[in-house]
TrEMBL record:
This is HPS6 biogenesis of lysosomal organelles complex 2 subunit 3. GO terms for biological process: lysosome localization; protein localization to membrane. It holds the Pfam family HPS6. Residues 408-590, 598-755 form the BLOC-2 complex member HPS6 C-terminal domain. It comes from the Eukaryota. It comes from Stegastes partitus (bicolor damselfish). InterPro entries: BLOC-2_complex_Hps6_subunit, HPS6_C, HPS6_N. PANTHER family: BLOC-2 COMPLEX MEMBER HPS6, HERMANSKY-PUDLAK SYNDROME 6 PROTEIN. Residues 10-386 form the BLOC-2 complex member HPS6 N-terminal domain.
Amino acid sequence: HHYFGSPKLQLSDFRDYTGSQELTDLINQNNSKLSNVRLSPDARHIHVILRKPQVGLVTFDKYERPLLVQNQKKQDLWLTRTVPIVDIIYLDHHNSGGSAVVAVVYENGKAEFWEFQEFKSGWHLLQTSDLCNSPRARVVSVCVCSNLIIWCEERPPSESSPALSSTRNKLRYCVCRRDFEVEEGAVSLGGVKIALHNNPKFTVASSGDYVHLLPDLKVKPLLTISKFFLTWSPHHDSFTVSATCKNVPLKKLSAKESDFKKLVTDCLGYLSALEPPEIYNFSPTACGGLLLLLSTGWLCLLQKDGTLRKVYKLADNCLVQHGTHTSLCMYQDTVALLIEQNLYLIDLNCGRELEKTVLKREGLLYANRAERQTPHLLSETGLFVVVNRETDSRDCNAKMKPTALLVEAVFEEACKYYQQRSLSSTQLTVDILKKGGRFQAPISLASILRNYLNAGLRQKGAELSQNGEGGCMAGQDKLMGSLEAELKALVSLEELKGSLVRGGVKEVEAVCESLVEKEVVRLLSSSELDKEALLYLNSIFSIFPCQAWRAAQAALQLHYNGEGCLSSRAPPDVWKTVLGPAPSSLQQQGSAGLGLSLNNVPLYKRALCLLSSLNPDQDQHQDLEVELLLVSGRPNAILQALRVLMGRRQWERVTQVAQKFCKQSPLLNKEIFTTLLCEVAHHRDLDPYLELLWTLCPEDFTVTNILNLVLKNLPSPNTQLTIGLLKPLLRKVLQRETKPSQRYADILQSPLFPPFKEVLVCSVPAT
């Protein structure tokens, strides 16, 4: 880690900038509005946007060769306008010769493009363009991302449209984009494209190849639509919806859907019950991420994949309020946070506070392109850099403390991380984490691994120990000892990768087979499969399908028992892992472990789902489907199997299944008999099996039940059901009744051949 201390080195007192006295005066006057100050990436140009009462822009420049321009008339970028300026953005075109091209964007959609050339004495207007299509549009925020100018604009309703409701009135903004290219003496603009419409007022902030759409930071959010923010990737054509109260994104979707209301409709109900912290300030990290300072006092890092990681928590007596001056910026592994006059330096990896310094004045943190790893600060007296504390013997103890605390800090942070994401109520401790092999902290682990592989470091540690200074290494050595198993596994993995690169085809196949088997056995033997492990297991099956299934067979210890059936000698814990439900987030996404594990879905349905995707032979597929349904023993599955068999007209198999499963329960007996009686009413294919079917009649069935059921299911007159076919059943039921009804005596005495409906039409009471 870079360990910064309180000393600050002044880089400039502004006297090397043009108009230095005016710059000092302006910053003094606008001390509470340092948010209106902009610096160029190389800090050679300082811009102050004037808001009230005067509207305009004032620029102060630092010339590399001031002697050459002393006798020349310099062209300054001082603008006095009647239309407010939204922002000034640098168009990154990598031209040599000390030139820079900026766009000054106004609220009315106008954009002025200016170029700075030192050898041509300053700033020159290249062109003025209309950024927006509509003359009535009002730009509220703007940024540049790669070769795109992106802005959020307000589009007022037409005079002929009806008055909008309060909520709809908030959704009158849209996010637009235009390609640009800096050419010799001009800026070429592409057409306007709408990325999002019907959205609330957004502050657009670019970071790397991503654009973050944040709610309006100047007002307190009142509506549900202000409780979340979006991350847009123009190059990947995707949106990510996030909230400050969730560590993972709410949803990810294609940017082809540009209607904001459709994007977030399914999130509104969920968010209405939440109170996410407000965003008080933000700072891009230049690699796709975003630093966020929340109203709860948490400093968080929003990664480009939408993951929100908590970094540092301010003390309760240091919490910020609306209107409090704040500034933040990231410098490689260190975050600088300025709250009024309190400067905090924080380790991004473990969240440790490295230093807290009280400044004499408020300031503005900024990044210098030439020294990205060092914090830079602008205040009313000049530009400063926070330098490394001098390394001497007095600081050995100061450096020992964070090193010695590294062991517990890393594991404690990992405990918090896993506990927050665990569904178990069991408290996770550092000891459990060390023994369980569950430690995953890629940033810290990579740093530790570099030292582990560096033999020279250990030799240096031995030398320091001989000199009595080995205490500084004790903490890191202890941590590496705790992670010995993980480190060895990583080293062996690197060796394995090397053997794959150097080996022949057969050797590679053998290594892959062995590796896949080890990984599958390891995953299936774990106590539970979390989301990451399940996705990893699915990737193994998709990349190495044959090897993975062989590995699964070995892990489950599957064997044929000689009777056409499989047996398994795997312990119950393995089957519990295989057949257990997937994490809830993967149920939502429709994924499953081994293609089977779906939450709250019976095992036979999981098997049927897999069967439908694997077996193209329809007859064989239906045979297997019937077997799966029957072996499940579930009433609905048995009835479904009966319907499949009846559809295939396998009547002997139908009666066998009915006879077997009617004994399972009275309710299932009733369902099966009802299904078969309806089938008897439709055709004569079951006539050879009627004697068997009548024995399945439930005890509580009455003659009235039977006759009504048959009447409701009689087909067309072409297929006639005669009374003679039903007489044995009706006689059996009447004899069973304690008080047989005389109403049906005529039916039992009637001839055998008349159609069933003609006999019953006047005999069966209405129900």
